Amino acid sequence: MAPDQKFVPTRIIIHHSFTKDTKTVSWNAIRNYHIFTRHWDDIGYHAGAELLRDHHEALFGRPWNIPGAHCRGYNHDSLGFVFVGNYDKYPPSDKILKAGAMVLRIWMDVYQIELAQIFTHNYFNSAKSCPGAEFDMVRLKNMILGLL
Predict the structure, then answer these.
(1) Residue 129 sits in which domain range?
(2) pLDDT, tens digit (0-9, with 9 covering 90-100), for 11-23
(3) Does the pLDDT at position 4 exceed 60?
(4) pLDDT tens string 35-72
(5) Of 63, 72, 73, 113, which has the highest C-beta tally within 10 A?
(6) Which CATH number is 126's domain given?
(7) What pLDDT is attached to residue 3?
(8) How many domains does the chain contain in total?
(9) Cα separation of 4 and 23, whole Å?
(10) CA–CA separation, 82 vs 60, rounded Å?
(11) What Å distances lie between residue 26 and 15, 49, 50, 64, 66, CA to CA?
(12) Residue 137 lies inside a defined structural domain of this protein
């Protein structure tokens, strides 16, 4: 993206971390992996949700006005959201989906993004299962609609 271009997201892309969600903070481990192993400027996602002790929380990553590093070829116009967990093995809980849905609803309002413009990562890269075979996008979108 050229320095004189403004980042204006028109879609949201949903991911999973492909790791087990424990009651400790995985967010910093993901950030460190992206920075020190992948050599990116920051965590690739703009936000995410994970289990912290006994509740689910939304966590913020890259600033919303900077392109992410979460979906090759689509970072220039999308916000990336990751649900911490391996949703190839089990479905996400309603609690983690609700934590994420609140952030997604805010993004939709701020950037005038329609519900139809929320996609799974594997929509753009069929070689990946992301956000997982057990991840139900209809369930997530229904939770977002419930926040209207």
Answers:
(1) 17-145
(2) 999 999 977 666 6
(3) no
(4) 999 999 999 999 999 988 888 999 999 999 999 999 99
(5) 113
(6) 3.40.80.10
(7) 52
(8) 1
(9) 42
(10) 10
(11) 15, 10, 8, 21, 22
(12) yes
- Does any domain span residue 9? no
Q: How many CA atoms lie within 13 A of 77 on its CB side?
A: 9
Please state whether the predicted TM-score (pTM) of the whole model is above 0.90: yes
Phi, psi of 47 (to 5 degrees): -165, 170
Q: Is the dihedral of CA 11, 65, 7, 28 positive or negative?
A: negative
CA 20 – CA 10 distance, rounded (Å)? 30
Within a domain: 117:
yes
The angle at the Cα of 30, spanning 42 to 16, to the nearest 5 degrees, equals 110
Q: Can you tell me which residue has the tokens 């753009």? A: 124
